[in-house]
Amino acid sequence: MGTRGTAEAADRPPKAVTRGNGLAAIMQSARGIFAERGYHGASIRDIAKGAGLSLSVLYYYHAGKQELLHALLEDALDDCRRGCETALATAGDDPAARLGAFVQATVEYRVRRQVDSLLALRELRNLEPERLERFVERRDALPKLLHEIIDDGVARGVFATPHPDEAQRAILAMCNAIAQWYQPGGDLSVTDLVERYVHLALTVVQHSPPPRRSRPKSR
Amino acid sequence: MGTRGTAEAADRPPKAVTRGNGLAAIMQSARGIFAERGYHGASIRDIAKGAGLSLSVLYYYHAGKQELLHALLEDALDDCRRGCETALATAGDDPAARLGAFVQATVEYRVRRQVDSLLALRELRNLEPERLERFVERRDALPKLLHEIIDDGVARGVFATPHPDEAQRAILAMCNAIAQWYQPGGDLSVTDLVERYVHLALTVVQHSPPPRRSRPKSR
Amino acid sequence: MGTRGTAEAADRPPKAVTRGNGLAAIMQSARGIFAERGYHGASIRDIAKGAGLSLSVLYYYHAGKQELLHALLEDALDDCRRGCETALATAGDDPAARLGAFVQATVEYRVRRQVDSLLALRELRNLEPERLERFVERRDALPKLLHEIIDDGVARGVFATPHPDEAQRAILAMCNAIAQWYQPGGDLSVTDLVERYVHLALTVVQHSPPPRRSRPKSR
Amino acid sequence: MGTRGTAEAADRPPKAVTRGNGLAAIMQSARGIFAERGYHGASIRDIAKGAGLSLSVLYYYHAGKQELLHALLEDALDDCRRGCETALATAGDDPAARLGAFVQATVEYRVRRQVDSLLALRELRNLEPERLERFVERRDALPKLLHEIIDDGVARGVFATPHPDEAQRAILAMCNAIAQWYQPGGDLSVTDLVERYVHLALTVVQHSPPPRRSRPKSR
DNA sequence: CATGAATGAGAATTCATTCAT
DNA sequence: CATGAATGAATTCTCATTCAT
Fold it and tell me: Closest protein residue to F6 using CA and C1' atoms?
């Protein structure tokens, strides 16, 4: 909550926000408060207060609480999808490499946008039905993509899992869960985290030859 | 909602409960509504209505909304723990068997008490801090237990995973997720589900010799 | 506003309302405040305060502001219609007598329920479309009835007006307007008021033989 | 809303106004919206939007909502009074002729400025007390004038009404009501309307010799 | 003339809870 | 066990208005 950006220390008036960037302040505050207390537990008043703004500005930028949540979620999803797409675009054709790229992108996203990840995981159901439907459609592209990667690996004989459905679900579940426990400042670096989860994923799909986590020039 | 009594007279108003089991009716209704809308999204009035009872009956049985949630969660946790303990009590000493028993108990629980599972997964944070602390302490016995099983297997050389922490988290995450997607009436029986998740778990910990899911006299 | 009933003076606690008759108090207060400030100008808070109750009781009795207005209007309309029906039921067959009865009922109603009259005249448009439609349908029975009386008189040759439509509108308009200016305590008694408006109405429809408003000096 | 400019380029956003007549556009929009939803039900934002202008333009021209309403009402009243004065100025000395002129002016006004008429009838009470008082004073010149005409006719023996007060109120009430039901495009022309209401008014005051609506068949 | 950003007061409504019976 | 009536705090949202540009 408190920990704002870097160069924002001394010279500000009672307002924490300078005129003109109200939107960003609100989004940021909403992210935190929605994540902390849940959609219904979060009051729009507190969000505004957290942004250092008056209650009503919120309505200048958004049509309401619901739309605010929606905006947050859409934004997060876009970022997540972009991450995967980029990763896969450079991963080549090998199923194991593709799976690795997918997992890496997902894990990194869960860490990079941990709060948004929690939002997407928990608060989705609070979208109005219509919004929800459209959102889920877009989101489901990701599990589907993962499934295709696994199916491809199985077809080519490099993934030996007898249960591709469960493998897909398991991989996603374990990656998603990261947002719930990972502590950025802790003793597990993101690089290591990624490496371990890629390993886990390859294990889950029973990749053979045994996943040599060699990667000669691992950054 | 669903479980109506047998001898229900036709001319009775929407009372879903026969005199005497008010408590059960309330718990049942609360389960459903809390799960559907979340703690803050659920109104105690709707819970009472869902139970076919008046508001005040609810207050006769429970001190308030918070206590109601707490009761639900405690009940669910007890059940979950009992399931694991029972399963492990008869599993013997073999790490693989113990892991299998743990997973089986967990999966079966997630299916048997799917709604409560969702509650425990999502609504925990709405417990008052004090309650939460006590609850989490008790709940954390389970991951810890799982961790011990894995560590034991690793020590004995039957689990080859280089990342026991991640393995433990992954196994729990994938089991927990079941509550979010499993459809009881669907084409995946609980027996099959359990078998697959046991397989998955053994795969995750890199159990060798290769997990023969033989079980000659599988029930 | 201030002027409550007769025997309600000394012995009451801080609350102006005794437990159990909240509904009546609210309706009474709403009548006054809606009439005084208009639907949108009246705040539900003030209505509650005027009733000596808390804001939320209002919602115990009514679904909301809109429904409150609706209840008021329906009640008023019922009373108005009943008045006319009763009057006409005993008026016999003579068009002049019938017109007299109609006017008398209307005028008396406007005086007896002056506040509700103002509401019906002014706040009708604030009913939601659906409610409005149903209401207007019922209300329009009255102008229609008046029109029939006039047509009948014209047909029988006792009303000489060349413009029955305008006559009907004029009679209604002038009767309705009474609610806007009549002062109960003033020097014009209701009896006189009625007599004058019956005379006016008969004049408007050009009733002949010349309306002998004789009644030597009844009462 | 309706009256768009003539040379309106196609590619322009929903600006209903061409630069320069902002004031008129605002007044027009306010008229419509105040009449439709009432003073308190009308939002100044919608008025601005209806005029195709930004909120602040509105504040450039008017000090606020209240002043906007006031301006509208004053304008309307001026027009109304001017109409009567002009009509009476050329009506000569005969009470019947004067009454006819008065009614004609009033009826024509109610039709010509139907919306403003509704405003004046309904929204007057929303003027701040001080404004209201001054306004009512000016407005009351009209009923007073009508009363004088009637009194004059009675004194001269050409109006036989025994109730000049009621006659005056009735005539005004019926004329005012026109704004509530008249439909400009309908099958009743303004000329006819005026003729009928002049007849009605003369009937109400019991003008004798019997109102010869002679005018053989003028237009 | 015109704008976009912001505010504070107040609107209706909901909700957990209590109390007398 | 059970009810109906009532409350007060909090919630989302709207609105007239202002201000810097």
Answer: C57
- In Å, what is the separation between the CA of B219 and the C1' of F18? 77
Asked if D126 reaches chain C (Cβ–Cβ under 8 Å), the answer is: yes
Query: In percent, how much of chain A has pLDDT > 90?
Result: 82
Domain residue limits at D140: 66-205
Judged by C1' against the alpha carbon of D59, the nearest nucleotide is: F17
CATH number for the domain that contains residue B180: 1.10.357.10
Touching status, chains B and C (3+ beta-carbon pairs under 8 Å) = no
Decide if pLDDT at A101 tops 50: yes
Torsion angles phi and psi, residue C147, rounded to 5: -60, -40
- pTM, rounded to two decimals: 0.83
Q: Are B173 and A143 in contact, with CB atoms under 8 Å apart?
A: no
Beta bridge partners of B207: B159
Task: Give A23's contacts (C-beta < 8 A, 6+ positions apart).
Answer: A61
Give the CATH number, domain containing residue C29: 1.10.10.60
Both B27 and B107 in one domain: the answer is no
Q: In one letter, which amino acid is C190?
A: V
pLDDT tens digit sequence for A141-167? 999 999 999 999 999 999 999 999 999
**Over the stretch C161-217, which tens digit does the pLDDT of each residue have?**
999 999 999 999 999 999 999 999 899 999 999 999 999 999 999 998 644 445 544
Largest Cα–Cα separation, chain C: 64
Beta bridge partners of C207: C159
CA distance linking residue B8 with residue D196, whole number of Å: 71
**CA atoms of C147 and C144, how far apart (whole Å):** 5
Residue type, A207: H
Contact between B207 and B159 (Cβ < 8 Å)? yes
Positive or negative CA dihedral for A37, A42, A45, A49?
positive
